[in-house]
Each structure stands twice: as C-alpha cells, then as structure tokens.
Amino acid sequence: MKNPNVLVIGSGVAGMEASLILGEAGQKVYLIEKESLIGGQTIKFEEVYPNMECATCMVAPKQQEILQNENIELFLLSEVEQVKGSVGEFKVKIKKKARYVSLVNCIGCGACYEPCPVSLENEFEEGLSKKKAIAVACPGALPNVPAIDPENCLRLNGKKKECQACKEACMFDAINFSEKDEILDLEVGAILIATGFGLLDAKNLPQYGYRKAKNVYTAMEFERLYAANGPTEGKLVLRDGETPKSIAIIHCVGRSEQGYCSGVCCMYSTKFSHFLKHKIPEAKICEFHTDLCIPGKSHQKFYQKILNQGVDFIRFDDIKVEEKNGKMQVIYKNGNGEKDKFIADMIILSPAMIPGGDTESLAKTIGISLDKKGFFSTQSEKLSPVATAVDGIFVAGCAEGPKDIPGSIAQAEAAAGKILSILR
Amino acid sequence: MKQDFKPNIVGFLCNWCSYAGADLAGSSKLEIKPYLSVIRVMCSSRVNSNLVLNAFLWGADGVLIAGCHPGDCHYEKGNYYVRRRFALLKKILETLDLEPDRLQLSWISASEGKRYAEVVNKFAEDITRLGPSAFHTNPNI
Amino acid sequence: MNEKIGVYVCECGPNISERIDIDRVLEEISSAEGVKVAKKFGLLCSNDGKNYLADEIKKEELTHLVVAACSPREHEQTFMNVCLEAGLNPYLFQLVNIREQCAWMISDKEEATRMAIKYIYAGISRVTLHKPLLKKELDSIPDVLIIGGGISGIEAALCLAGKDRKVYLVEKTESLGGMVKKFFELLPYQGSNLAVIEEKIEQVQNNENVEILTSSEVEDVRGFLGNFEAVIKSKSNGSETKEIKIGAIIVATGFKLFDPKNIPQYGYGKIENVLDALEFEQMSASGKILLKNGNPPKSVALIHCVGRNEKGYCSKVCCLYSIKFARHLQDKLPGIDVSEFYSDLCLPDKADQDYFEEAKKKGIHFIRADNLELKEKDGKINVEYKVAGGKKDSIAVDMAILAPAMVPSEDTSKLAEILNLPLDETGFFKEVHEMLDPISTPIEGVYVSGCALGPKNIPESIIQSQAASGKILSSLIPGKKIEPEVKVSEIREEFCTGCQTCLSVCFYGAISFDEYKGISVVNEAICRGCGSCVGICPSGAIRSKHFTYPQLYLEVLQALR
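Above: the input entities. Below: the structure tokens describing the complete assembly.
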C-alpha cells in the first residue's frame, strides 16, 4: 500500500470509533466533520435504551481521546470538495470553513456569548432554544470552543461592520474576524464514510400536524427536552411551560413513504414512555405502532417492562392528528379496523431515518453509488458489508442505512479492521 | 452560633461521571455553597469505609459520595459495591452517635451539571441544619 | 524533607484571576512545607505557559510540581507532557482544580479564595507522597485463536491472517462453514446463492497463515492480552492435545435452534410434516420438497416466533427467512398456497420491506395471529389460531414449517467457564458494554462475534468479525510492545489474609489466588485501576497506585483544615 493514511468523514460514534482504532494502530487519520463540534447525534441523547445509560458519559471519554490522540488530525467545519485517484493513492481536497475563533487560544470560558447582540434559533437544540452568533452548540460540547456563524454575525454579514463585542470580551485573543475559508489537499490510502443520518421532515406529512398543532414534537426535539444539558434542562414541559398529562407517541412516521422500517424507533419510543413515566408518573401515555420491531436479546424485556407500567400500546392501521379548540386529538383506526380517538396534550412523532443531507453530493464527489433508498450501498451481495464498490472506500454507521448505536460502532470497527487489513 | 456555622464537607467524586458533572456545573457557572471539598477517585467503589469513617473522626460534618448512575459505571459494577457499603456505613454512623444523614450517596452523570449543584447545595443545607458533628474539631495537622 | 515543590497558579486570563485573590493564595502557600517556589502565570496551557513551566522545572530543579488551574479532565495530560519533556516523572505532578471547583462555582471572592487555598494545600500534601510511576512494556504475540469455523470465524481468519500473523481456526465438527452451509440459499441482498460462502471457505483453506484444526475443541486458556496460552484437543487424532501461544482470542461459536418439542401445541415430533426451519433448509437444498408420503405439498403454513415468548426475545432473522421459504415454495411448486402466521413483522434492514412487499404481491398470505395450535386432522395439519380482536379461525395445510428462536450453542457455558467470560440472562455471551463496545468482553484480548453474542443475520455476523479483527489489528501490532495501565492495584503480601474477597469484585479477572502462598495476586497487565478491590479489601492489603490511602487521607485532612 503506497499511502497508509486514512480519511474519515464524519465524527459521530461511527467516525470516532473508527478513527480511534486506526489511530491506535499508528495510522495517520484525517477526521473531517462539517459541524463545529464532534460526537454526532449520540451526544444529543440523555439516556439510551435498553440500560438507560447516559450517552454523554459514554461518549465524552471517546471525544477526549479524539482530541488528544496524536495520530488523529481533526478538521472541523470541513467538507470534502474533491476526490481523485484510487486505493492507496487518493488525492482529496477539503474545504475548511473559517471558525473565526482560535482552537489554540480559546479556553472555552464563554465570556464572548453574553455581549453578542444577535439571537438565533439553536439548530442543535432543534430550535427549542436561542443561541448567539458566537456560540457552542450545547453546554459540554467538545471541543469546548465556540464558532462564529458568519451568516448571522453582524460584522461578518456586513450589517454592522464595526461590531466586535465578542472580540472585546475575549481575554485570550482568540477571535479573528479575518480568518478565511481554506482549501486543503490531503493524500490518503483509504476513505471511510461515516456521515450518519437525517430525520424525515415531519412537515412533509401534513396528517401528523407537525408545526401546525402546537405541541407536536419530533423524537429528536423530545430527546433534547429530556436532556439535562438541553433547552429545558431536562424538564418535560409543553411550549407554554405546562406539564403534559396525556401523551401520544406515534411510530412509523414516514415508514410507508420511505419504504423501509428504521429499526430503532420502536425501542426509542418505548424509552420515551419510560422517561415520561419517570418524570410524570400520573401521565397517560399511549404508543401508536404498526409492527413492533424489537430485535435484540434484551429489547423485548424492556418493552414488557414499560407495558407493565401501564403504558398503552395500540396498533394502528390509519392515523392522523387534528387540533380542535386548542385540543389535539389522535384519530386512528386500530388493528381490528375500529375507529377511535385519543386526546393528547403532547404528541411525539418518530420519523423515519433518512440519508444525511449531503449524502447525494458526497456520493457524486467521491464517485460511488447510492442504493434505491438513497443510502450508501455496500458490496452486500458479496457479503462484504462495509466495502463500497470502489476499492479502498468504506462506509459505516447510518450512512449505510438506519441502525442503532452498537450496530454503528460494530460497523465502524469492521471498517477499521478492513482498512488495517488492506493497508498492511 | 449556628448562624456562623460553616460546615466542612468532604465529597468523593468518581472521575468518569460525577467529576465530569461537577466540571459541567463549573463551566455553566452554577453557584454552590463553599463548604464542599472535592476529592477525585477513579471509581466510587474505591471509597471504602476507612476513608469515610476517618473523615468523620477527623471532624467532617458531612461526607458525600457521588458516582455514575447504576448501570453506567465506567468499570461496569463499581457503583453497586459502594451502594452496599453505603447502607452499612449508615448503620455504623449511628453507633458513633452521628446522624446517618451526614453521609450521602448520589448518582450524578456527566451531563447533570445542574443536578450536581443541586445535590451539593441541598446537602450543604441539610448539614448546616444538623449543625456541627460530634467530632467537629479542627484536627491538628 | 528534601522536596522542592513548585506551585504554579494559572490566572486563566480573568477566569481565575478575577474571582480568586491569587496573590493571597501565593502568600499563604509559599510557606507550606516543601514548597520551593510559588508563582502565578497568565495562561499555563498556552505554548508560552508550557515552555515557562518546563523551564521552571529545570531551573528550580523541582522534585514535584503542583499546578492550580482547571479540571484535570481538561489539562492533566497537557501538564504531564510538560513534565516528561522537562525530565520530571509525570506522576510527581498534581493538577488542582480551582477554576471549575472554585472560581466558577463560588461567587464570593473571599470564599472562593479560601477554598482554593484548601485545594492547593491538599495538592501539595498529596504530591509529596506521589511515587514516580513508570510505564511498562510487554512483549506480545500477534497470533490469534478463533474458536468456531462458521461464517464469523472464517471472516475473522481472512481479515487477520497475514505474513506476520498466524491464525488458528478451531472447529468442533469435521468441516468449516457452520450453520450457513446447511442453508439452500441466502437472501437476495446477501447474494442469494452460497457461492460467496464457498469462496470464503476455499480462501481460508488456501491461506498458508491459517492453521485449521477441525474436530477440535479448546480445553484450557490462560494468560492475558498479548500473551495467552491455549490447549486444543483434537478428537480425530486419538485425543491428542496441542498447546499454542496467541495474543488474542475470538469466540465465534454461533447458535442453535430452540427445540420446538418444548412447546407441545406446535405438534413438532408428533404430527407428520411439521418441520423446523433448519430441516426445511436442508430439504430445499436436497432439491426435493416432499411430504412424508412422497407427494409435494399443496399448502404450507409458516409459523413465526416459535419460542419467542418462552425465551423472551425476538430472534430478528425468522421473519425474513420465512418469507424466503414462502417465495422458494412458490418458485418450486407453482400454485402452492402459502400462509405466514406472525405476531409482529420484524424487517429492520433497509432492503427488508421491499422483499416483504414483493412476497405479498405474489399472493403469499400474511396472517397476524396468536394462540396457535397445530392438530392432526384427516391426514392434514389443522392450524388453529386467534386473530386480532380474539376471533378464532383455522386452516388445514399439508406441511408446517416452524421458525424457532435462536438459542446459545451447546458448549457456550463450558467455553464461558474456560475463558472466564460472563453470560447474560439469555445464556449468550455478554458484551462488555452493550452500547459502546458490542464485541469486547471483560477480558482484554478476548472478543466474541456473531451469533455467540445473540441472534443476528449473516452480514451482522461478518461485521462483528471484521470489528473484532479491527480491534486486534490495532492493539496487537507485530513487533510492537503493549503498554498496560500504570495506575493499577498492588497487593501487599504481608497484609493479605487470603480471604479472596477481591477476586469476586474484579470485573476484569485481574486478580488470581496464589494457592501456595495463600494470597491474592494482581496481574498488572490486566488491571484497569478502578480500585474496587482496594475498597473492598477488609485488611487494607491492596493499594491503588496514585490513589493510595495516605494520599487520599492527606486530601481529607486538608479538606478539614
């Protein structure tokens, strides 16, 4: 193998795991991440099924290792622009956007947030809280260094060229408005795609009332509501601050439209009931599902436990959400074909996992194919489940299709294994 | 007298969850009562009876042990051992004429900065209410 | 006292300097015993700061270093590296957290200063008792033992074997291939036919770096990551045993099927033409799908979830292979009537639902049912069942195929004992962390992959084997030494009473009992330094390096100043 270096695209659990294994093996790893922080989606979860472990606690040591490992070079706010060459001699162009805050000088004290005059929706918090134009995504984000959003910063977008409120507040000379986007050239022997997933936009399915009825939440929004470091500091409250008394959780949102089951929603929806029972014991909770998909040796036991706590599980054939006189109701046809309704203060939707936003363009840039569902495809017919059709290019985690955390980690370790196996 | 009472509290925090939670409380600039001295250990299971009892005998007004939530232990099972030990220690405290409430075991995760501050402040309040421990004398060192 | 301790307080810009009276701190601690210098600096973690510290260590000939700054989670490693660079053992250093713990959480400057002084005193007291710990290096063997010659074991062998790494592939039966070889075909997205499997078997057989030991079993294993010894017994060679040395082990012993005889209402073993899934796979592989009377079946019922309730879990693959059976029956016996009786369809892979939809279009009946009972009636099998809402129904078929739960293979518990591995409540091997580390075990260097961990499909088994290989390829590099944890437990022989309490709490199996001396012994190559054994030792005989009793006691005493 001519070049033993590896490019890993995406720093979620899959990308981090693969990078750590490759780094430990002494391989030089270029880990590129389009966001300003590492950790992907997993760090948004307070607790994960079936053992209700704290995801932050699990992932933080890995994040620290990524930041400290000498063999791993991390490029944040970066995306792949071009890939040329073949296995053993890929030439890659990376576009690294300006952060405007020095990762070396900044110590993460947060003195710059307060003075910033701009207030924005925080995307990391699913828009449930505000952030400044200079901000970290959430408390505890790693690296603990903010980034300036150039589109909204008054100085950088030209609306108030003299503003330097953050720079004045910074005692460490960490802010540099003149930083420019960079194009970097890398040479690697192998590439791993670990760009994760997106969630189907529930707005596209109007029958669920998302963004129309007041208290319809997506699963990811609910995860952030429950998170101790989230917008409500873990309080499960409606938008008006009231505690919900009856909650409907609707599975399979977009399943028939997408044409596949996402494999994880039944379990995390059941986990939501667990959260709700824990924080609002008197709440009435109803899970609306189609086929329950709970494979895994400990999952059925978890479901059984929640069922025994008095959560209703109703199989539906047909379902819609309506709001009348400020009251939301779930109108459905159950498994026996009978029509019924459920009045809910809060409705949580479990939308299909879909390919991440930049999957198509990345596939084009790299020159590999997608399957008919839009995920990266592997040589599955050759029983080679992490290798793409192009030698030296691998895929792991939800970029390959919906899966749970251990599934993503195993696939990342597998990809690292295949890479080490071909690079020696 | 009770008005000026500033209790001395020793807090043993596990490195992986509770100490990280304390760090988050710090970086979130949450206010805590300045009575707790933190001692970092790798796992809450390292905190054995000698450490706790000696702390009391040397004049601690309260001892807090904080570890990962059950099931979250970085070393898989350590926090279960300390949970059992804790139950036993409570009984021993009674034989020393110390209020069992002077010893507390809490589970604090790395994302629970706010909980850390709440636990510490609540415990400081409780101990202040209990007043100085029977052994509350500054040891000569 | 010959200590020359240097204490450096980081201002952290305004973060510490504005909230703590650093000058008062310095004034107070500069007179503490052993302190040679006490100074402050703007930002110690900056390059200037690190150079300054390194210079100070050398210039002042410091024997110990205390830095009062931020959380050890942030910069302990940074300053340990500075020590290394300056020639001071990095364990003769203590980082005192006065930023998160004092400056940021105590708004009263007076109080924050008081607490900071306490913490720094604790650091100074403690550091004098620190021992210069040294990293150890151990030689390691890169070779690997794989137990189980099914698709998981084969895949791992292919991934690992190379010119500088030998693989021993131990298989209990006479041939490689395991369960998969008994199948008549695979799912379309797995390539349908078995050619890929045959190819992999051939590759592994032709690989000169793989030693295949069929008709063999593992009798005994000892050692730790990088240095295991295993005894393999061959059944064919007159019970000959062979000793091998390896650095890592992969357990890939697969699964077996739940015996449907345990649930009498399915009539398995009593009613003619009731088969289990594996029997149907083999019947299809033979090319002759026939009833006992020699005629082809005209109607078939496929019964899912056999034993699911009894075992308490869903085996994940049964829905898919039952659909595979149905489609195969339709292909081979046109006009056949096929009904699938299921509880919940489990189709979690991205390609599964399409496969199911196609089957539905081809006229296969899918009936959600429970309370199934199979009875013999007029030479046919009568399937009685309840549908949603409790309505009873029945259908008479020529043949019924049961899809039983996947359960741990025969020798799982025996192997668990030999390897000292835990099993979970379902009887499969237990992963060290179900979420984060799905193929590792508490014993470092021992991995489990495939269905030995629980039900899964072929691609997932292959992924896990490649994953285990990845872990081994990165931790056991030929010619490279391994560095075990430094802050481990040690047992002071003179105090150990031999009660063996510590053995029961060590999750990693790092402690063993020396029968001859009558004491416990810690294997430092395995210990991870949690201190559970220290906490539980009733005679105080165990010490955790860097977290010794005296070190912690001094911290406690300073806390109570």
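Note for the figure: The CA atoms of residues 43 and 56 of chain A lie 6 Å apart.
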